[in-house]
Amino acid sequence: MLQPRQLGYLALDVADLESSVRFYQDVVHLDVTEEREGCAYLTGGIQHHWLVLRQSTTPGVNRVAFEMENERDLEAMEKRLKAAGVEVERAGSGTLGRERVDQYIRFRDPDGIMIELFTDMVTMPMAPTYAHRVHMSKLLHTVLLEKDASKSVPFYTDLLGFQISDWVERTAAFMRCGDKYHHSIGVFGTGGTRTQVDHMCILVPTLDDLMRARANVMALNVPFRNDLLKHAPSGSIAIYFRDEANNLTVEYCWEHGQILDEAHRPRVLPAMPETLDMWRLVGPGFGKGTAEISLSQGVQPLSQPAASRINGGAHPMGEAQALSALGVRQGDGARVETGK
Predict the structure, then answer these.
(1) CATH classification of 6-121 is 3.10.180.10, yes or no?
(2) How many percent of the chain have pLDDT more than 70?
(3) pTM for this one?
(4) For a designed S-S bond to 156, which of 57, 83, 162, 321 qualifies (C-beta 3.0 to 4.6 A apart)?
(5) Which phi and psi (to 5°) does residue 327 adopt?
(6) Averaged over 230-249, what is the pLDDT?
(7) Domain ranges (residues) in the chain
């Protein structure tokens, strides 16, 4: 099946490169693999980079990049996109020294978010040394907030080959690619209000690593968006915390499931707080209606418990309510340069 192999990296334009590098070193525990004038590459694994930070006067996510299996698949994807009328920028051999990937194509999704598909990133001689630090397995997924999920989701499935793992109502889709993890990308509809990258997620190998990451975030007084919770879609246990300077959320997760059954049938999950967090205490109205949580409230850390009410109501839930119930606050997420 023609599809990306896995999420490769995010490129983030930042107003203050030095402080952003410090944040991702000290808080996220990524290592700097290379620095150039106005640019830094960071990783948590053997790959040259999971994150590219570039000095800019207009901060925000520049692009989201996925790795293809080989050059043949990259060329086939380029042909498919062009046949569908998508404008594609192609960079062939010679980009290894500049971009640290061998070949790539770039294009924009229906909401204008820049997507890159690449082959053969530079591999480091060894992974970062993790003594007294958080061990990391991989850069796992990203979630995009897009104005109209009904247009964006078919772009990722029909053209890019992602497979739907689960829906939330019909306002959000979790999609997997070649590595078979429950989702490498999520697309949440915003009801036409905004387009942005909500968060990036790093998978860790043990519960100890997740708790060590949480303790580090707390010790550095970095604000949580969501404290310990268990997701219904993937089964993962996670924390979310904020890069406030660049308006991006970072997630650490553990035990994110894979879907190996090709006959898997996507579920349609309810847009309720319990879909975000299976550990949430529920009341007698569980499953009987929609949840009311302010978009500005989100889900608070354990030290600041937030009560929720579950009331009767009509389905399907509106996109704004769905985002609210799933813990996405108004204004969360990094601005993206849409090119529109």
Answers:
(1) yes
(2) 80
(3) 0.84
(4) 162
(5) 85, 10
(6) 94
(7) 6-121, 138-335
